[in-house]
Amino acid sequence: MFRFLxxxxxxxxxxxxSRHSLLLENLALRQQLVVLKRxxxxxxxxxxxxxxxxxxxxxxxxxxxxxxVVTPETVVRWHRAGFRWYWRVISKVRKPVGxxxxxxxxxxxxxxxxxxxxxxxxxxxxxxxxMLGFDVSERTISRWMKRASSDPEPSKRWLTxxxxxxEAIAAMxxxxxxxxxxxxxxxxxxxxxxxxxxxxxxxxxxxxxxxIVQQLREAFPFWLGSAVSDLRPGPEVRSGGSRCRAxxxxxAIQTSFESxxxxxxxxxxxxxxxxELLDHxxxxxxxxxxxxxxxxxxxxxxxxxxxTSLCG
Length: 312
Fold this sequence. Notes:
Layout: H1 2-14, H2 19-39, H3 47-59, H4 63-66, H5 72-91, H6 104-116, H7 122-131, H8 138-145, H9 154-164, E1 169-178, E2 184-192, E3 198-204, H10 209-219, H11 224-227, E4 230-233, H12 241-248, H13 264-278, H14 286-301, H15 308-311
Parallel strand pairs: 1-4
Antiparallel strand pairs: 1-2, 2-3
C-alpha cells in the first residue's frame, strides 16, 4: 500500500517537470528494468501492481509499449479474472426475485378447504383465507386449486368404507393345514369386523359350493339380510361365490388377487392362529384339527363357543 501511494505522489510531482527531463528519466528507468528483467525473468507483483496496470489499460491506449515487467496478455488475463471475481461476489447477494412464494401452511389449508368443501371456488376460499389473516391473491388460489386432489387415494376410500360399515361387515376365508400323513385340510371361518369375533369355523377335506352355503347358514341361522349385509370372501372362496349369491341372495365382494390388505381382518386372524396354535402342533386328522381349532376360537372370543359340527 505504501509503495502504491508513493507511486501516485511521484506521478503527480512529474506533471510539473519539463518534457526533456521526463524523457531522460524514462530512458534511465527503462535501462534498469531491462537489466532487472534479464536477472529476474519473472518478478512477483502484488495486488496493487495488478490494479495499477488494469487502470492504465483503461485510461491509456499506448500502455503496451511502456509495459516491460509482464506481457500484455497477462494484464488482459488479470482483467478477466477480476471480472469473474466481481460477478461472483455480487451473485452471492441473495435478493427476493419474482413472486412471493406461498408457504406450505397456506397450501395445506387450501387443499383441506378444497377437499372438505368441493362446492367452494377460488373467491370463497380467498375470502375465508383473508378472514383467517392470510393475504393470498385469488389468482394464486385458483392456480393451487388445480393441483389439489379432491378425490382421496383408493386405499383411503376403501379404509373409510370399512370403518363406516364395520358393524355390518363379516369376512370369511380359507386357510390350509397339513396333517401328519401329508394330506391337506381346509379350515373355513367367518369373522365380524366390529369386535373381531369368530362367528363360525369348520374343517373339511373337500370344500364345495354346497358345503360353503351350509357353513354360512350355520354362521347366520337367522335371516342373513338382518345379520350381515356384506360378506367379503377371500381368494379361496371365489369358486363358490356365484352359487352362494344365487342360493342365499347376498352380495359377495371378492378381494383382488394377491392383495391381503383388502381382507386384512381375516388375514390377521389367520396369522395369529398359525403363530399361536398351528406352528406348535401337528394335526393328526380332521377331528383332531377341529378340536384344536375350536379350543383356540373359544380362547380368542373369550366366551362359550360351541359350533354345530362339534356339539351336535
